[in-house]
Amino acid sequence: MVALDGPAGTGKSTVAKRVAMALDARYLDTGSMYRAIALAVLRAGVDPTDEDKVVAVADGAVLVVGTDPQKPGITLDGDDVAAEIRGPEVSLAVSPVSATKHVRELLVAQQRAIIADALDHVGGIVVEGRDIGTVVSPDAPLKVYLTASADARAARRTKQDSAAGRASTVDAALADVQRRDKYDSSRAVSPMMAADDAVVLDNTDLDLAGTIDALIGLVEQRGLRVTG
Ligand code: DC
């Protein structure tokens, strides 16, 4: 298993999926689970900062997350929400929702079950998030904390947004990256941080291919590439 943590805008999702494909492993995007609960909260017309109501919505939500790196997919109460959870409303609501202790407990339990199931699978699993190496799987044999400067991450976000047809400026992207970094790193429950035994990989000056190579290099160094 590979635990891949770090802030937004490092290319973490693309890297995690590509590495999973290269290793014939499964893939779990834990951020998509927090996003789906945030969407459930918005759909219920609940204020994302109203903890009691958020907990009630989370308890009633049925999430199914796919682990195929080619097409992960996620459904909420039977509805395909893969596209909708990437929208700006969900991106805003997800910070307070993911800071809710009970929501984290609920999702961490689901994530551990998915990981346990995947460990019987030959290629294992690549899991991306913010707290995989620290909380979800503290025994993961390889933990990587992928990071890059805030400026580089904002520039990448702007590029992604314009490619997806969303209006975006570097200044707005930088403000958003900084807001989320601050929120995710300073929350009381499972703040985003590198595990003590994580390899910190800064890809400010690396492209996607270079980042993927570096990660596969670490997997091989640790003898985690299993075939058969
Ligand atoms: O990786 P992402 O941007 O899709 O994550 C969405 C939000 O969920 C982000 O604000 C941080 C939070 N998150 C978290 O708290 N813990 C995780 N393991 C994954 C994501």
SSE map:
Elements lengths: L1 E4 L6 H12 L2 E4 H14 L7 H10 L2 E3 L8 E3 L2 E2 L7 H11 L2 H18 L6 E5 L2 H5 L5 E6 L2 H14 L6 H17 L12 E4 L5 H14 L7
Helix pairs in contact: 1-9, 2-3, 2-4, 2-5, 7-8
The structure holds 2'-deoxycytidine-5'-monophosphate (DC).
Low-confidence parts lasting 5 or more residues at pLDDT below 50? Answer: none
The total count of strands amounts to: 8
Structural class: alpha/beta
Number of helices: 9
Shape: globular
Average pLDDT rating = 93
Strand order within the widest beta sheet: 2-6-1-7-8
- What is the H-and-E element order? EHEHHEEEHHEHEHHEH
Bound molecules: 2'-deoxycytidine-5'-monophosphate
Task: Explain what this protein looks like in three dimensions.
- The chain has about 230 residues and is an alpha/beta fold.
- It is built from nine helices and eight strands.
- The protein has helices at about 10-25, 30-45, 50-60, 90-100, 100-120, 130-135, 150-165, 170-185, 210-220; strands spanning about 1-5, 25-30, 65, 75, 80, 125-130, 140-145, 200.
- The strands form two sheets. A five-stranded parallel β-sheet has the order 2-6-1-7-8, with helices on both faces.
- β3 and β4 (about 75) form a beta hairpin.
- α2 (about 30-45) packs across α3 (about 50-60), α2 (about 30-45) crosses α4 (about 90-100) and α7 packs across α8.
- The mean pLDDT is about 95.
- Bound molecules: 2'-deoxycytidine-5'-monophosphate.
- 2'-deoxycytidine-5'-monophosphate (DC) binds near residues 8, 129 and 180.
